[in-house]
Amino acid sequence: MSQLDFHFINRIRQQTKKLANRTALRYHENGSWQDITWSDFQSQLDQLSAALLAHPIQVQEKIGIFANNMPRWTIADIAALQIRAVSVPIYATNTAKQVAYILNDADIKILFVGDQEQYDQVITIVEQCPQLEKIVAMKSSIQLGEHPLACHWQDFLSVDSTTQQVEFEQRLQQKQLTDLFTLIYTSGTTGEPKGVMLDYANLAHQLKAHDQTLQPIDHNDISLSFLPFSHIFERAWVAYVLHRGAINCYLESTDHVREALSEIRPTLMCAVPRFYEKIYNAIWDKVNQASPIRRQLFKWALKVGEQHFNTPRPSWLLRKQYALANKLVLAKLRHLLGGRIRMMPCGGAKLEPSIGLFFHSIGINIKLGYGMTETTATVSCWEDKGFNLNSIGTIMPNVEVKIGENNEILVRGNLVMRGYYKKPEETAQAFTQDGFLKTGDAGELDAQGHLHITDRIKELMKTSNGKYIAPQYIEGKIGRDKFIEQIAIVADAKKYVSALIVPCFASLEEYAKQLNIKYHDRLELIKHSEIIKLFEKRINHLQQELASFEQIKKFTLLPHAFTVKMEEITPTLKLRRKVIMQRYRRQIDAMYS
């Protein structure tokens, strides 16, 4: 295949010809799963492309998508790409202020909104966005309130598409790999968001690299999407799924993942480390409550699974033991994820090695990867065999990685962004003189070519004793506990490490019930002496591997979670430490008084 064959729009149209009557997309509606065939998918794409041309949207002009996952998200995205427009995703959880910034900075002319909540937010800021010409409600249930810029999806489509056919064909013929396909706004932990410019050459590079790296995927595979498309991880993965002709299934809410796993029984699914942590903790909770015989059986089966995973050529005896362990225990554990998972890409943060080993031992092929929006997702990922569980994988094909000043991971290759939209100074600062992207992550490459990450360079904290603390590393160690939902380390210019902790209240309230602890509200619960003792015990156990200067000496339990709305976390769930430190100054001061 030539490089232009890997142009994403060419891949969609090629798969439509090849798989016309097969399922492309699947979604849940009115209590059951509905299918959209490739031919119907292409028809909807072409119809919306014609409507966008009629508006008119010019080459490389911007449309926005402010919605949760749904087939129309993908349809709006690719319909815009077919006419060489640029689609700009906006997190469904963004505040009105954040939405207004992106609409204006990206010069968005048409905005697609997914639910009433998003529509209502846009209406409050629409007068601040003079370039916005149309708001398209993706669901007929959205109440428009007769706003002059607003219309429903079907009304937007009601144009004479025949008059746009010549222009449509010209746009298809004139498409280039140098065209931008998206602007993705990185929700920085400091400062205003920056629009990452990604072009079709970036995406083509990743399609080709994943073909070379992953096990073959085809129309028999089913991928379940529940991570937000506004993030590069799920968006690039869905592009790859469609490129391979597999079925993509949509979940608007993460509340229904468990049911979807049993109903869809996917073969592929992206997830973040927190997803695996919760499953891991839930399984061990059940095991610890089981009878001694069942506990021993579980531990034996897990040990056999681990030996089988770690042995390149298992002996006859080990193969027989594994077959028995699989029948009695391991297959039942895989059934929790539907029973057909072949591969699970994992990204967004580092996965605790013991949890990675657990899932591979039970037969779940987790592909932990490292990447960022600026690299169109994957820079490195775990191989099928022989990878280092402590690493973030080996480097993807045709990518250069080296370690620069302050142990910073530097990346160069066709996967790297064009730059930041309208920000030439920030773009220049993001690259070294020889064209390597500065990732902002500290790490190292070992002798076997495995990439290791230690922390975000900008987030290193220095205690008043002169010791450097890597907060994300500590948060990763402690935060995987089933009783902890969120954790923010405090150490900068302090004499010891402390922490603000948001408990996982579902687990905590169940624990309080078992101990018959009486309380009126969450604030009273987290002040109870038995609860404080519980957290002290669990934190001390989890931080045994940490150096004494890294260990948490004091902590404060918080009754409410850090939220995007309060600007304490970004939409990708990264901590905005400056905001948190200011907002919880009283609690922090109390830990050092």
Write the layout of secondary structure elements.
Elements: H1 8-19, E1 23-29, E2 32-37, H2 38-54, E3 62-66, H3 71-82, E4 86-90, H4 96-105, E5 108-113, H5 116-125, E6 134-137, E7 150-152, H6 153-157, H7 165-174, E8 180-186, E9 194-199, H8 200-213, E10 222-225, H9 232-243, E11 247-250, H10 257-264, E12 268-269, H11 273-289, H12 292-310, H13 316-334, E13 344-346, H14 353-361, E14 366-372, E15 377-381, E16 394-395, E17 400-403, E18 408-412, E19 419-420, H15 424-429, E20 437-445, E21 451-456, E22 461-462, E23 468-469, H16 471-479, E24 484-490, E25 497-503, H17 505-514, H18 522-527, H19 529-542, E26 552-557, H20 577-583, H21 585-591
Parallel strand pairs: 1-11, 3-4, 3-5, 5-6, 6-7, 10-11, 10-12, 13-14, 25-26
Antiparallel strand pairs: 1-2, 8-9, 9-19, 14-15, 15-16, 17-18, 18-20, 20-21, 22-23, 24-25
